[in-house]
Write a structure and sequence with these properties.
Layout: H1 3-9, H2 12-15, E1 16-25, E2 31-42, E3 46-48, H3 50-60, H4 63-79, E4 86-90, H5 93-97, H6 101-112, E5 119-123, H7 126-129, H8 132-144, E6 148-154, H9 160-166, E7 171-174, H10 176-180, H11 186-202, E8 205-208, H12 214-222, E9 227-228, H13 242-249
Helix pairs in contact: 4-6
The chain binds guanosine-5'-monophosphate (2 copies), manganese (II) ion (MN) and sodium ion.
Length: 250
């Protein structure tokens, strides 16, 4: 049977999981929160990567159901963490298109009791590329509600700077393709430095993704990057391992 059919028939709450990757302050090393990343524990295929199942979910209309569940699960988990730890949730452009996203977020916040300021929604610029007027309106509605908005994979699109003028993002996530080369490519270092400077000028937080080495960490500290995430500290972990990370880094 196809993954599509398996997904359609799956009881989401029993086959899908939210895993959490810690986000830390570059300067202090203290924990700021976690990014929630979806996992599918398929009954016969084992763990299926979101890189494989998210595109299928987007094409078949299943992303709305999965995304609604993910928002609830992430907010419910985050509500059990000490204040002010935040949770970042990836939201697909398809969820914007199909309507009901604001209500799904409102619902997840109400159900969990999580303060809106502790939820960050991560979007990619493709959200602003398509249906931009409607989507900008929805982003403003979320911000007015107190939810934070992050621009994911920053620097990889073809006109990222244009979007900074259109919407006051709370955070830029520096794509890991730049971070990976920061020690051996002067161009990548210059780009990371420029993004951090841009964030500082605009009052937008910057998070470096994919930090794997202490040399990268030291470089990011010298450049005064705000936060980081990456395998250097931790991969995404199951909810049962979150308390240990909070104990170690909060
Ligand atoms: O966790 P991993 O590195 O395998 O994630 C691969 C990709 O899947 C990343 O681009 C990530 O943003 C995306 N992804 C993971 N979880 C979710 C989710 O809950 N919703 C959406 N839309 N994308 C997700
Ligand atoms: O597109 P997005 O930024 O949401 O993707 C998150 C993905 O990045 C997840 O699949 C996560 O597993 C992966 N990831 C997190 N930290 C690292 C890292 O240090 N190195 C690499 N290669 N991938 C990472
Ligand atoms: Mn992300
Ligand atoms: Na990213």
């Amino acid at each position: 049977r196809s993954l599509e059919m398996d997904m359609r028939n799956a009881d989401v709450a029993s086959q899908f999981e939210a895993h959490f990757q810690p986000i830390l302050s570059v300067q202090s090393g203290k924990l700021c929160g976690f990014e929630a990343l979806m996992r599918w524990r398929h009954p016969t295929r084992g763990m299926v990567s979101p890189a494989e199942f998210i595109p299928i979910a987007e094409e078949t209309g299943q992303i709305d159901r999965l995304g609604r569940w993910m928002l609830r699960e992430a907010c419910v988990q985050a509500a059990s963490w000490p204040d002010p730890l935040m949770v970042a949730v990836n939201v697909s452009p398809v969820q914007f298109r199909s309507g009901g996203l604001f209500e799904a977020i409102e619902d997840a916040l109400r159900l969990s009791g999580l303060a809106p300021s502790r939820l960050e929604v991560e979007i990619t610029e493709s959200v602003l590329l398509a249906d931009s007027a409607a989507n900008l309106g929805l982003l403003r509605q979320l911000r007015d509600h107190g939810v934070r908005i992050a621009l994911d994979d920053f620097g990889t699109g073809y006109s990222s700077l244009h979007y900074l003028k259109q919407f006051p993002f709370n955070r830029l996530k520096i794509d890991r393709s730049f971070v990976r080369e920061i020690d051996n490519s002067p161009e990548s270092l210059a780009i990371v430095r420029a993004i951090i400077g841009l964030g500082a000028s605009l009052g937008i937080d910057t998070t470096a993704e994919g930090v794997e080495t202490t040399t990268q960490l030291e470089r990011l500290r010298a450049e005064q990057c705000g936060e980081l995430q990456g395998f250097l500290f931790s991969p995404p972990v199951a909810p049962g391992n979150v308390a240990d990370i909070i104990g170690e880094f909060f």
